[in-house]
Amino acid sequence: MNRPSTSLTIAIRRQLVLSGHSTIAAISEATRVSFPTVKKQLEQLIEAGEVCEQGFEDSSGGRPAKRYVYNAHFTHGLTLYVEKTVIRYRVIDCLGTTIDEGTQVILKEDHLGTLDGARSSIEPDAKCECDVHRSRGGRRGRDGHLRAGLSDVRTP
Fold it and tell me: What is the pLDDT of residues 63-89, one digit of tens each?
């Protein structure tokens, strides 16, 4: 399900990333788009795995509203810094939080071979962490070390 991003999709992503979590009513108010339109778009994002439901907001009377969060592990980014003898890499999630980073030694001046051999060790686990509230603080990498989060929020 690879749909092009619309201005509403981008606005919903931005609202969820900047607020950490939100309701349909809050997104509707922030984007100035009708409740049913926001709900329909959120359903599509949930189906794609980009957004997840996360419990309910505290009720101030009436039915509590569902809370939605952006799935930071929906997609990942990889940065590479290639030097003469090593390749340094960093894997980040959608929010810019470092998931894994490290260095691979280049063997026999074979840069592409080293990248190909290292690919499996730097591919992050494709899992959804929507059931856990994300913080912009540190995370544990695959090796168990705490990874510091980036302080700025990357918006799509």
Answer: 888 999 999 888 888 888 888 888 888
